[in-house]
Amino acid sequence: MSPIRVLLADDQTLVRAAFAMLVESAPDMEVVGQAGTGREAVELARDERADLVVMDIRMPDLDGIEATRLIAADEHLAGVRVLVLTTYDTDENIVEALRAGASGFLVKDTRPADLLDAIRTVAAGEALLSPGPTARLIARFLRSPAAAPPTTGGPESLSEREREVLALVARGLTNTEIAETLGLSPLTAKTHVSRIMGKLGARDRAQLVIVAYESGLVTPGTM
């Protein structure tokens, strides 16, 4: 298989260099570009055909949220995933990043091995959210009426089984874990998730999480 093509976007040169060394140490990844601003990240994602952008939020010229929104809205970048890195005190920004089209986020003190695993997870099309208190805070912010879900439908269009699957996706379960929970085969679970994304017009699993919380299907405290 071809290596995951990773673009690093952070306004701190030393941080980018450290991330680059880490990513290049993985045999299944390669760094195809480094950006110091959000605008550079958007341009390089297009020019270098990156699979995934590791995106900082606070950057000059164009911040990570707006850069994520531009990437998600560009039909030529439909296959590009965004993994946002942040600090523990920017939960509101993370919610906006997810609404903008990010496929997940991690806090910057994540262990190196966990960051590599996160890149693999997001590149494979899974949503990834930091666990614990941050996830619960995100659930609370997602329930606010600040913005509508970035989809074309709601859970009312789903079957009862699909609603069950959606609730488990919102809790962060993988297809395999969903299959085990509901007594399904992994392939059936994957099919359900794909159909749900199609019915809701969701770009990826992260947007399914947003729909589940903003519709009230899953409530804060149930993570």
Could you describe the 3D structure shown?
With 223 residues, this protein is of the alpha/beta class. The chain folds into 2 domains: 4-130, Response regulator (Rossmann fold, 3-Layer(aba) Sandwich), CATH 3.40.50; 146-214, Winged helix-like DNA-binding domain superfamily/Winged helix DNA-binding domain (Arc Repressor Mutant, subunit A), CATH 1.10.10. The protein has helices spanning 13-24, 38-48, 64-73, 91-100, 112-123, 133-142, 160-170, 175-182, 186-200, 205-214, and strands spanning 4-9, 29-35, 52-56, 81-86, 104-107. Helix 2 packs parallel to helix 3 (64-73), helix 4 (91-100) crosses helix 6 (133-142) and helix 8 crosses helix 9 (186-200). 45% of the residues are buried.
Overview in brief:
With 223 residues, the protein is of the alpha/beta class. Helix content is 49%, strand content 13%. It has two domains: 4-130, Rossmann fold (3-Layer(aba) Sandwich), CATH 3.40.50.2300; 146-214, Winged helix-like DNA-binding domain superfamily/Winged helix DNA-binding domain (Arc Repressor Mutant, subunit A), CATH 1.10.10.10.
Helix proportion: 40-55%
The stretches of 5 or more residues where confidence is low (pLDDT under 50) are 147-151
Radius of gyration: 17 Å
CATH homologous superfamily of the largest domain, by name?
A: Response regulator
The CATH architecture term of the largest domain is 3-Layer(aba) Sandwich
Report the span from N to C terminus: 34 Å
